[in-house]
Amino acid sequence: MARAKNFNAGPAALPLEALERAQRELLDYAQSGMSIMEHSHRGKEYEAVHDEAIRLLRELAGIPDAYDVLFLQGGASQQFATLPMSFLPAGKSADYVLTGVWGEKAVEEAKGLGQVRLAANTGKEAPAAGGGSTRSYTRVPKQSELELDPAAAYVHLTTNETIGGAQFHYVPEVKAPLVADMSSDFLWKPFDVSKYAFCYAGAQKNLGPSGLVVVIARKDFLETGRKDIPKIFQYRTHAKNNSLYNTPPTFGIYLARNVLLWIKETGGLAAMERRNRQKADALYGVLDKHAGFYVAPVERASRSTMNVVWTIGRPELEEVLLGEAKKAGMVGLKGHRSVGGFRASIYNAVSPEWVAVLTDFLDAFAKKHA
After folding, report:
1. Residue 268: pLDDT over 60
2. Is the model's pLDDT at 1 over the cut of 80?
């Protein structure tokens, strides 16, 4: 079969090697006569996969022993609520750094559970794609712009905004525990886990299929969580049970294990960073080359390496571009419905060869229609 050149924002492209391994093992895992999906999560066959996934993640990301690694369900959106439910006590507030739509959703959930302060908000009113108005985010704040409360319960940020395409390229200096939603740029490069008290990521961008979320949390921070909420919503419950308190998404964790093996075999996170920077430089390069035709709205210092967004000055050409791209085997380039335009999500599994096809296409399209 001819693989589609998949630029979807999530669920997104998975490494071919990880999928091929799953294909080989789908009906008979480790000569057990059963699929991994049929194995008990308490059985030795599955637990070996589970533990290997955690070990690989610790190894690749350099996660210290002082941190727990959790595999949970509910995705990042559930963490928007579970996080303040656990760590935002009465009488305290949490600081949120707002740089896009997913940050807005996190703030909305937190406001229903406690007191929230906006330590920064880079949004501006802009026309919405379907009419009316929306908030447009084209940058992340500088350190000097952050109005932080040193006594905050925690400081929350979204490291990469999938829809607007703004990404943090520095880790803010804070006095309160730092919490990060890393869903759309998790494992794109090496990062210093010790700067964070708690970080989480939906798997469906860089790690695996939808339905799985990874949490990396400092053990002493987890122990500060409330104990008067249902056990299933207490992170300590899952930490004490190695993410096996209830039946986990076993096939999702198995596929995440396959992806982590691929990252390791490809050279680890340092190799991922080189690969991802090459792709982003090439794509932004062609957009900037035709800056009179394409518009990349995000400020250069905040441009995402994972989600490249742009528009064209002639709306009548949008469907033409998407149609011609589809004929060339490319999918997932339509921008989010709230902002319109275009978006190419170039996560770890998106090959440089796919991006080269896209850049050549965009170059030729601009020359033809400019």
Report:
1. yes
2. no
Catalytic residue among 5, 68, 95, 181: 181
Concerning whether 192 is annotated as a catalytic residue, the answer is no
Catalytic residue among 68, 185, 205, 279: 205
Establish whether 102 is a catalytic residue.
yes
CA distance 182 to 199: 7
Domain boundaries defined on the chain: 17-266, 268-369
- The string of DSSP letters for 304-361 reads -SSEEEEEES-GGGHHHHHHHHHHTTEE--BPPTTT-SEEEE--TTS-HHHHHHHHHH
Percent of the chain with pLDDT over 90: 93
Helices (H) and strands (E) in the chain, counts: 10, 14
Cβ neighbours, 10 Å, residue 55: 13
Residues facing 201 on adjacent strands: 214
d(CA 40, CA 70): 19
Global confidence as pTM? 0.96
Residue type, 282: A
For the domain made up of 268-369, the CATH class stated in words is: alpha beta
Structural tokens at position 58: 């610790």
Q: In the CATH hierarchy, which top-level class contains the domain 17-266?
A: alpha beta
Does the annotation count 181 as an active-site position? Answer: yes
214/124: higher pLDDT: 214
- Degrees to nearest 5, angle at CA 127 with 122 and 130: 125
Residue of 68, 95, 102, 262 with catalytic role: 102
